[in-house]
Specification:
The protein has helices at 32-44, 52-67, 73-86, 91-103. It starts with 31 loop residues before the first helix and ends with a helix. It is 53% helix and 0% strand.
């Protein structure tokens, strides 16, 4: 009998990658352009960002974690929360943070 790999979703919404099958991998590539945009926005709005050097480190942490084969969702969310506090005065940054959060499974 052959192995059948399927995904059945009934109702609700699914956000984030789904992998099925032997050695399947799902990667969060959709978020990477947003992570790059975050870095650019922090550079652009540095004067309004509290602790911009630490904010840049948060962005790097998010990018590295999302590039992992199995990203740690809690680690990404913690970095996004810190970044939200540091950039609370810059609406466009907070918006991108929300878009990344929405992509997380």
């Amino acid at each position: 009998m052959s192995e059948q790999n399927t995904v059945n979703i009934h109702g609700g919404n699914v956000n984030g990658p789904i992998a099925v099958g032997h050695q399947a991998r799902a990667v969060m590539t959709a978020a990477q352009p947003l992570v790059q945009q975050l870095g650019d926005l922090i550079d652009e709005h540095e004067a309004q960002v509290a602790e911009p050097a630490l904010a840049r480190r948060d962005v790097q942490d998010i990018g590295r974690e999302l590039a992992e084969p199995e990203p740690d969702r809690d680690r990404v969310l913690d970095a996004l929360k810190r970044l939200s506090r540091r950039a609370a005065e810059v609406t466009v940054i907070v918006d991108v943070i929300g878009r990344i959060r929405d992509l997380l499974p």
